[in-house]
Amino acid sequence: MPVAAPLPPRPVPDATNVTCAYVPGGRSARPATAPATTSAPTSGTTEITLDTTIGAVPLVLDRASAPCAVHSLESLARQGFYNGVACHRLSTHVGARLYQCGDPSGTGTGGPGYTFADEWPVTVSHGSGGYTPPPALYPRGTIAMANTGRADTNGSQFFLVIGDSVLYPQYTVLGTVGEAGLPLLDAAAAAGDDGSSPLGGGTPTTPVVITGIR
Length: 214
Fold this sequence. Notes:
With 214 residues, this protein is mainly beta. The chain is built from 2 helices and 16 strands.
């Protein structure tokens, strides 16, 4: 695997709440509304469980890392936005081992009809002279927001990182996969993918479909 620096230190929040801007836009893959309140707490964690076709995958979401991303995901989960949605992409390449989930269209281009700004580590990762910062190590178990590759295009899609992955630090980190979920994801990933994605990997051979979130 390529050598990469660890993610930069996470800054300490300077307020107990932040105001999040959820901007209408992007391809809406399923009817959804932005969170009713734009104020999000910046401390503590919240635990949710993805009920999936391969078993229960617990997630620990970190409000200090990404309060607006966590606030959005919780809101979409309550609306049932993710119910019946497959993780449409699996990559098992060395240095990029992850599932991409959260797009009801299954194309990698769909979202909730709104976008929001990047958070850590994107906001503290800066290249020199205006260049893109060098890749960083996203450790196994990381949950990170997927985006279009442009700034502030977060929506509903997220990565479940199943192996240490070297990625450009342009993906907001919002928590970790619980230990009980990783072996389930590993076992499903062992069946491989169809190689159909131009980003690497493709549709998982063993489907991973979110049947509900609790």
